[in-house]
Design goal:
Length: about 130
């Protein structure tokens, strides 16, 4: 049984990228789908689609490579079930000098840090990626 679907999904993406796989399969939840959607919008993954297998759903993620190297340098889970991490809107302005992205769960939904700063909301920091 997996307690933290977000960290499991990030680990599957990280491991598939290290092994230079074309795609990987993640377990589905609404939050994981929102996180993967942000990764696709920011250009860290090529594409994703939700597959229904009867009652269960899964997410197929196609990874992105540039000249044989993965686009993802580092992906890290920040807020964990044992220790939640929250940041205000002013702390979400930039990450890695603008090259990275902080993914935040806010009252407006799951957002990247630039969108959260634009809307003026803070929230729970789910993960960072660059």
């Amino acid at each position: 049984m997996i307690n933290d679907l977000i960290s499991d999904s990030l680990t599957r993406i990280r491991n598939a990228a290290m092994r230079r796989l074309d795609s990987t399969t993640l377990m589905h939840s609404k939050v994981v789908e929102a996180v993967v959607g942000i990764l696709a919008d920011k250009g860290y993954i090529e594409s994703y689609n939700v597959v229904e297998n009867g009652v269960k759903k899964s997410i197929n993620v196609v990874l992105k490579y540039d000249n044989g190297r993965t686009v993802i340098n580092e992906v890290k889970r920040v807020s964990k079930p044992g220790r939640r991490v929250y940041k205000g809107k002013d702390e979400l302005k930039r990450f890695k000098n603008g090259y990275g992205t902080i993914i935040v769960s806010s009252s407006r939904g799951v957002l990247p840090n630039d969108k959260a700063f634009e809307l003026g909301v803070g929230g729970e920091v789910l993960c960072t990626i660059w």
